[in-house]
Design goal:
366 residues, alpha+beta, Aminopeptidase, 2 domains, 13 strands, globular
Amino acid sequence: MNAPFPIHMTQDAHITPHIVSVALDEVDDQLVRALAAYVDNHEAATPFHRLEWVRAVAQGCGQDARYLVAFDAADNIIGALPLNLIHSPLFGRALVSSGFAVGGGILSDNHAATDALAHAMWEVAERESCPTAELRGGAFPSIDWNVEKDTYLGFETELAGNDEEQLLAIPRKQRAEVRKGLKNEMQVRVVHAEQDRADHYDVYAESVRNLGTPVFPRSLFDAVMDGFGEDADILTVYAESRPVASVLSLYHKGVVMPYWGGGTWDARRLRANDVMYYALMNHARERGCKHFDFGRSKAGTGAASFKKNWGFEGEPLSYAVRTADGETPRDVNPLSPQYRLKIAIWQRLPLAIANKLGPYIAKGLG
Protein backbone atom coordinates (compact mmCIF):
# COMPACT_ATOMS: atom_id res chain seq x y z
CA MET A 1 0.00 0.00 0.00
CA ASN A 2 1.20 3.53 -0.79
CA ALA A 3 -1.15 5.48 1.48
CA PRO A 4 0.57 7.99 3.79
CA PHE A 5 -1.50 6.84 6.81
CA PRO A 6 -1.74 10.23 8.56
CA ILE A 7 -3.69 10.41 11.82
CA HIS A 8 -6.79 12.56 11.45
CA MET A 9 -9.47 12.66 14.15
CA THR A 10 -12.48 13.74 12.09
CA GLN A 11 -16.12 13.85 13.13
CA ASP A 12 -17.52 14.09 9.60
CA ALA A 13 -20.24 11.46 9.56
CA HIS A 14 -20.72 11.80 5.78
CA ILE A 15 -17.37 10.24 4.93
CA THR A 16 -17.66 6.90 3.14
CA PRO A 17 -14.76 4.88 4.54
CA HIS A 18 -12.83 2.22 2.72
CA ILE A 19 -11.62 -0.73 4.77
CA VAL A 20 -8.29 -2.49 4.55
CA SER A 21 -7.76 -5.90 6.15
CA VAL A 22 -4.17 -6.41 7.25
CA ALA A 23 -2.59 -9.69 8.34
CA LEU A 24 -0.12 -8.96 11.12
CA ASP A 25 2.73 -10.78 9.40
CA GLU A 26 2.25 -8.53 6.37
CA VAL A 27 1.78 -5.10 7.96
CA ASP A 28 4.50 -2.62 6.99
CA ASP A 29 6.35 -0.37 9.41
CA GLN A 30 4.59 2.78 8.19
CA LEU A 31 1.16 1.36 8.95
CA VAL A 32 2.39 -0.02 12.28
CA ARG A 33 3.45 3.48 13.32
CA ALA A 34 0.21 5.02 12.08
CA LEU A 35 -1.96 2.47 13.88
CA ALA A 36 0.05 2.86 17.09
CA ALA A 37 -0.41 6.63 16.94
CA TYR A 38 -4.13 6.29 16.23
CA VAL A 39 -4.64 3.97 19.19
CA ASP A 40 -2.51 6.16 21.45
CA ASN A 41 -4.49 9.27 20.53
CA HIS A 42 -7.97 7.77 20.71
CA GLU A 43 -9.67 8.40 24.06
CA ALA A 44 -11.58 5.09 23.92
CA ALA A 45 -8.50 2.93 23.29
CA THR A 46 -7.53 0.15 25.70
CA PRO A 47 -4.44 -2.09 25.94
CA PHE A 48 -6.42 -4.63 23.94
CA HIS A 49 -6.47 -2.38 20.88
CA ARG A 50 -2.71 -2.41 20.65
CA LEU A 51 -0.97 -4.43 17.95
CA GLU A 52 1.13 -5.96 20.71
CA TRP A 53 -1.95 -7.55 22.23
CA VAL A 54 -3.39 -9.27 19.18
CA ARG A 55 0.13 -10.36 18.19
CA ALA A 56 0.64 -11.88 21.63
CA VAL A 57 -2.62 -13.84 21.33
CA ALA A 58 -1.51 -15.13 17.93
CA GLN A 59 1.96 -16.05 19.15
CA GLY A 60 0.97 -17.39 22.56
CA CYS A 61 -2.15 -19.35 21.64
CA GLY A 62 -1.82 -20.01 17.93
CA GLN A 63 -4.95 -17.98 17.13
CA ASP A 64 -4.81 -15.94 13.92
CA ALA A 65 -4.80 -12.17 14.18
CA ARG A 66 -5.46 -9.32 11.80
CA TYR A 67 -6.40 -5.64 11.85
CA LEU A 68 -9.19 -3.87 10.00
CA VAL A 69 -8.39 -0.24 9.25
CA ALA A 70 -10.86 2.38 8.00
CA PHE A 71 -9.58 5.21 5.79
CA ASP A 72 -11.30 8.30 4.48
CA ALA A 73 -10.93 9.59 0.91
CA ALA A 74 -7.66 11.32 1.82
CA ASP A 75 -6.20 8.14 3.34
CA ASN A 76 -6.55 9.39 6.89
CA ILE A 77 -7.16 6.63 9.44
CA ILE A 78 -10.66 7.12 10.85
CA GLY A 79 -11.21 3.73 12.48
CA ALA A 80 -9.48 0.56 13.58
CA LEU A 81 -10.56 -2.89 14.73
CA PRO A 82 -8.19 -5.60 16.07
CA LEU A 83 -9.33 -9.17 15.50
CA ASN A 84 -8.45 -12.64 16.73
CA LEU A 85 -9.89 -15.70 15.06
CA ILE A 86 -10.48 -18.15 17.91
CA HIS A 87 -10.74 -21.83 17.08
CA SER A 88 -11.43 -24.60 19.58
CA PRO A 89 -12.50 -28.21 19.06
CA LEU A 90 -14.56 -27.87 22.26
CA PHE A 91 -16.00 -24.37 21.94
CA GLY A 92 -16.14 -23.82 18.18
CA ARG A 93 -15.02 -20.81 16.17
CA ALA A 94 -15.52 -17.12 16.80
CA LEU A 95 -14.09 -13.86 15.53
CA VAL A 96 -13.32 -11.72 18.56
CA SER A 97 -12.19 -8.17 19.28
CA SER A 98 -10.05 -8.70 21.14
CA GLY A 99 -9.08 -12.27 21.96
CA PHE A 100 -8.48 -13.13 25.64
CA ALA A 101 -9.44 -9.57 26.53
CA VAL A 102 -12.11 -7.83 28.58
CA GLY A 103 -12.03 -4.90 26.15
CA GLY A 104 -11.43 -4.11 22.53
CA GLY A 105 -14.04 -3.46 19.88
CA ILE A 106 -14.27 -0.71 17.31
CA LEU A 107 -12.29 2.50 17.58
CA SER A 108 -13.71 5.08 15.20
CA ASP A 109 -14.20 8.76 14.55
CA ASN A 110 -17.78 8.59 13.27
CA HIS A 111 -20.78 6.30 12.75
CA ALA A 112 -19.91 5.62 9.12
CA ALA A 113 -16.54 4.18 10.10
CA THR A 114 -18.15 2.15 12.89
CA ASP A 115 -20.71 0.56 10.59
CA ALA A 116 -18.15 -0.06 7.85
CA LEU A 117 -15.79 -1.82 10.25
CA ALA A 118 -18.60 -3.91 11.74
CA HIS A 119 -19.74 -4.94 8.27
CA ALA A 120 -16.18 -5.84 7.29
CA MET A 121 -15.74 -7.86 10.48
CA TRP A 122 -18.84 -9.90 9.71
CA GLU A 123 -17.57 -10.53 6.18
CA VAL A 124 -14.34 -11.89 7.67
CA ALA A 125 -16.37 -14.05 10.09
CA GLU A 126 -18.40 -15.54 7.24
CA ARG A 127 -15.31 -16.12 5.12
CA GLU A 128 -13.57 -17.88 8.03
CA SER A 129 -16.66 -19.99 8.91
CA CYS A 130 -17.13 -18.30 12.28
CA PRO A 131 -20.80 -18.46 13.34
CA THR A 132 -20.20 -15.81 16.03
CA ALA A 133 -18.51 -12.40 16.08
CA GLU A 134 -17.90 -10.58 19.37
CA LEU A 135 -17.16 -6.91 20.05
CA ARG A 136 -15.95 -6.43 23.62
CA GLY A 137 -16.63 -2.76 24.08
CA GLY A 138 -15.85 0.12 21.75
CA ALA A 139 -18.35 1.72 19.40
CA PHE A 140 -21.30 -0.40 18.30
CA PRO A 141 -22.88 -0.63 14.85
CA SER A 142 -26.41 0.60 14.28
CA ILE A 143 -27.93 -2.67 13.02
CA ASP A 144 -27.55 -6.47 13.05
CA TRP A 145 -25.74 -6.79 16.39
CA ASN A 146 -27.16 -7.73 19.78
CA VAL A 147 -25.80 -5.43 22.51
CA GLU A 148 -25.60 -6.78 26.08
CA LYS A 149 -25.35 -4.14 28.81
CA ASP A 150 -26.14 -5.77 32.16
CA THR A 151 -23.93 -8.86 32.40
CA TYR A 152 -20.57 -7.38 33.33
CA LEU A 153 -19.35 -4.50 35.46
CA GLY A 154 -16.07 -2.61 35.14
CA PHE A 155 -14.27 -1.29 38.21
CA GLU A 156 -11.93 1.72 38.05
CA THR A 157 -10.96 4.42 40.52
CA GLU A 158 -8.42 7.19 41.01
CA LEU A 159 -5.23 6.42 42.89
CA ALA A 160 -4.42 8.35 46.07
CA GLY A 161 -1.48 10.71 46.55
CA ASN A 162 0.78 8.52 48.72
CA ASP A 163 0.96 5.14 50.46
CA GLU A 164 -0.85 6.22 53.63
CA GLU A 165 -3.61 8.03 51.75
CA GLN A 166 -4.01 4.94 49.58
CA LEU A 167 -4.47 2.76 52.65
CA LEU A 168 -6.99 5.16 54.15
CA ALA A 169 -8.91 5.26 50.85
CA ILE A 170 -9.70 1.56 51.27
CA PRO A 171 -12.96 0.97 53.20
CA ARG A 172 -12.45 0.11 56.86
CA LYS A 173 -13.23 -3.61 56.75
CA GLN A 174 -10.98 -4.25 53.76
CA ARG A 175 -8.30 -1.93 55.16
CA ALA A 176 -8.16 -4.13 58.25
CA GLU A 177 -7.41 -7.14 56.04
CA VAL A 178 -4.58 -5.25 54.34
CA ARG A 179 -3.12 -4.29 57.72
CA LYS A 180 -3.24 -7.91 58.88
CA GLY A 181 -1.37 -8.93 55.75
CA LEU A 182 1.27 -6.24 56.19
CA LYS A 183 1.99 -7.54 59.71
CA ASN A 184 3.02 -10.87 58.18
CA GLU A 185 6.12 -9.14 56.82
CA MET A 186 5.96 -10.73 53.38
CA GLN A 187 8.29 -9.55 50.63
CA VAL A 188 7.05 -7.81 47.48
CA ARG A 189 9.09 -7.86 44.29
CA VAL A 190 8.49 -6.26 40.89
CA VAL A 191 11.02 -7.28 38.26
CA HIS A 192 11.11 -8.84 34.79
CA ALA A 193 13.46 -11.77 35.37
CA GLU A 194 12.71 -15.26 34.07
CA GLN A 195 12.24 -16.59 37.60
CA ASP A 196 9.54 -14.00 38.27
CA ARG A 197 7.65 -15.12 35.19
CA ALA A 198 7.91 -18.72 36.35
CA ASP A 199 6.80 -17.85 39.88
CA HIS A 200 3.82 -15.89 38.54
CA TYR A 201 2.72 -18.73 36.28
CA ASP A 202 2.98 -21.31 39.06
CA VAL A 203 0.87 -19.18 41.40
CA TYR A 204 -1.68 -18.26 38.72
CA ALA A 205 -2.02 -21.85 37.54
CA GLU A 206 -2.74 -23.06 41.07
CA SER A 207 -5.22 -20.22 41.60
CA VAL A 208 -7.33 -20.94 38.53
CA ARG A 209 -7.23 -24.71 39.18
CA ASN A 210 -8.67 -23.99 42.61
CA LEU A 211 -11.43 -21.99 40.90
CA GLY A 212 -12.12 -24.89 38.54
CA THR A 213 -10.92 -23.37 35.27
CA PRO A 214 -8.06 -24.39 32.94
CA VAL A 215 -4.95 -22.23 32.87
CA PHE A 216 -3.88 -20.33 29.76
CA PRO A 217 -0.60 -21.34 28.11
CA ARG A 218 2.47 -19.78 29.66
CA SER A 219 3.45 -18.76 26.12
CA LEU A 220 0.57 -16.24 26.14
CA PHE A 221 1.91 -14.51 29.24
CA ASP A 222 5.45 -14.49 27.84
CA ALA A 223 4.25 -13.03 24.55
CA VAL A 224 2.37 -10.23 26.35
CA MET A 225 5.38 -9.44 28.53
CA ASP A 226 7.73 -9.44 25.53
CA GLY A 227 5.37 -7.39 23.36
CA PHE A 228 4.41 -4.76 25.94
CA GLY A 229 7.90 -4.30 27.32
CA GLU A 230 7.88 -1.61 30.01
CA ASP A 231 4.08 -1.40 29.71
CA ALA A 232 3.68 -4.72 31.54
CA ASP A 233 5.20 -6.13 34.70
CA ILE A 234 4.81 -8.82 37.35
CA LEU A 235 4.39 -8.10 41.05
CA THR A 236 4.85 -11.11 43.35
CA VAL A 237 4.37 -11.49 47.10
CA TYR A 238 6.70 -13.94 48.84
CA ALA A 239 6.36 -15.57 52.26
CA GLU A 240 9.66 -17.06 53.43
CA SER A 241 10.91 -17.09 49.82
CA ARG A 242 7.76 -18.90 48.59
CA PRO A 243 5.61 -17.08 46.02
CA VAL A 244 2.08 -16.94 47.42
CA ALA A 245 0.40 -14.24 45.31
CA SER A 246 1.30 -12.74 41.95
CA VAL A 247 -0.19 -10.50 39.29
CA LEU A 248 0.72 -9.57 35.72
CA SER A 249 -0.39 -5.98 35.08
CA LEU A 250 -0.80 -3.85 31.97
CA TYR A 251 -0.11 -0.11 31.82
CA HIS A 252 -1.86 2.14 29.33
CA LYS A 253 -2.17 5.92 29.28
CA GLY A 254 -1.80 6.43 33.03
CA VAL A 255 -3.95 3.45 34.03
CA VAL A 256 -2.75 0.22 35.64
CA MET A 257 -4.78 -2.94 35.03
CA PRO A 258 -3.98 -6.01 37.14
CA TYR A 259 -4.94 -8.58 34.54
CA TRP A 260 -3.78 -12.08 35.43
CA GLY A 261 -3.48 -12.45 39.19
CA GLY A 262 -4.08 -15.02 41.88
CA GLY A 263 -2.83 -16.69 45.01
CA THR A 264 -2.06 -20.11 46.44
CA TRP A 265 -4.14 -21.79 49.13
CA ASP A 266 -1.84 -20.19 51.69
CA ALA A 267 -2.49 -16.70 50.33
CA ARG A 268 -5.84 -16.43 52.05
CA ARG A 269 -4.41 -17.17 55.50
CA LEU A 270 -1.60 -14.68 54.94
CA ARG A 271 -3.83 -12.03 53.31
CA ALA A 272 -1.29 -12.08 50.49
CA ASN A 273 -3.78 -11.03 47.81
CA ASP A 274 -4.74 -8.00 49.89
CA VAL A 275 -1.09 -7.03 50.27
CA MET A 276 -0.56 -7.63 46.55
CA TYR A 277 -3.24 -5.23 45.35
CA TYR A 278 -2.30 -2.56 47.88
CA ALA A 279 1.36 -2.86 46.85
CA LEU A 280 0.37 -2.64 43.19
CA MET A 281 -1.58 0.57 43.81
CA ASN A 282 1.51 2.15 45.38
CA HIS A 283 3.83 0.78 42.70
CA ALA A 284 1.60 2.05 39.90
CA ARG A 285 1.45 5.52 41.43
CA GLU A 286 5.27 5.56 41.59
CA ARG A 287 5.26 4.72 37.89
CA GLY A 288 3.11 7.78 37.24
CA CYS A 289 -0.30 6.12 36.99
CA LYS A 290 -3.39 8.06 38.04
CA HIS A 291 -6.03 5.33 37.88
CA PHE A 292 -6.42 1.70 38.92
CA ASP A 293 -8.57 -0.51 36.68
CA PHE A 294 -9.66 -3.60 38.59
CA GLY A 295 -11.04 -5.16 35.43
CA ARG A 296 -14.45 -6.66 34.85
CA SER A 297 -16.57 -9.03 36.91
CA LYS A 298 -19.97 -10.51 36.33
CA ALA A 299 -22.67 -8.63 38.23
CA GLY A 300 -23.77 -10.34 41.43
CA THR A 301 -20.67 -12.54 41.81
CA GLY A 302 -18.17 -12.84 44.64
CA ALA A 303 -15.51 -11.23 42.46
CA ALA A 304 -17.68 -8.13 42.02
CA SER A 305 -18.32 -7.99 45.76
CA PHE A 306 -14.58 -8.27 46.46
CA LYS A 307 -13.89 -5.21 44.31
CA LYS A 308 -16.70 -3.27 45.93
CA ASN A 309 -15.11 -4.06 49.30
CA TRP A 310 -12.07 -2.15 48.06
CA GLY A 311 -14.22 0.91 47.42
CA PHE A 312 -14.71 0.45 43.68
CA GLU A 313 -18.08 1.23 42.12
CA GLY A 314 -19.10 -1.02 39.27
CA GLU A 315 -20.00 0.53 35.93
CA PRO A 316 -21.95 -1.53 33.36
CA LEU A 317 -19.92 -2.74 30.40
CA SER A 318 -21.44 -3.27 26.98
CA TYR A 319 -20.62 -6.05 24.55
CA ALA A 320 -22.04 -6.75 21.10
CA VAL A 321 -22.50 -10.14 19.44
CA ARG A 322 -23.60 -11.13 15.97
CA THR A 323 -24.55 -14.71 15.21
CA ALA A 324 -25.24 -16.43 11.92
CA ASP A 325 -28.84 -17.37 11.18
CA GLY A 326 -29.82 -20.57 12.93
CA GLU A 327 -26.79 -20.54 15.23
CA THR A 328 -26.57 -19.80 18.94
CA PRO A 329 -23.80 -17.65 20.43
CA ARG A 330 -20.95 -19.65 21.89
CA ASP A 331 -20.82 -19.78 25.68
CA VAL A 332 -17.37 -19.76 27.30
CA ASN A 333 -18.47 -18.16 30.57
CA PRO A 334 -17.28 -20.44 33.40
CA LEU A 335 -20.22 -19.26 35.52
CA SER A 336 -22.75 -20.78 33.13
CA PRO A 337 -24.80 -23.64 34.63
CA GLN A 338 -23.62 -26.06 31.94
CA TYR A 339 -20.08 -25.88 33.31
CA ARG A 340 -20.80 -26.47 37.00
CA LEU A 341 -20.02 -30.18 36.94
CA LYS A 342 -16.90 -29.68 34.83
CA ILE A 343 -15.66 -27.01 37.25
CA ALA A 344 -16.23 -29.28 40.25
CA ILE A 345 -14.24 -32.06 38.54
CA TRP A 346 -11.44 -29.70 37.52
CA GLN A 347 -11.04 -28.42 41.07
CA ARG A 348 -10.24 -31.97 42.19
CA LEU A 349 -7.55 -32.60 39.58
CA PRO A 350 -3.96 -32.87 40.79
CA LEU A 351 -2.20 -29.63 39.93
CA ALA A 352 0.33 -31.31 37.63
CA ILE A 353 -2.45 -32.83 35.52
CA ALA A 354 -4.47 -29.60 35.45
CA ASN A 355 -1.39 -27.67 34.32
CA LYS A 356 -0.68 -30.18 31.57
CA LEU A 357 -4.22 -30.36 30.19
CA GLY A 358 -5.33 -26.79 30.90
CA PRO A 359 -3.41 -24.88 28.20
CA TYR A 360 -4.76 -27.12 25.41
CA ILE A 361 -8.30 -26.27 26.49
CA ALA A 362 -7.82 -22.65 27.51
CA LYS A 363 -6.11 -21.49 24.32
CA GLY A 364 -9.44 -21.99 22.58
CA LEU A 365 -11.50 -19.92 25.04
CA GLY A 366 -10.45 -16.57 23.63
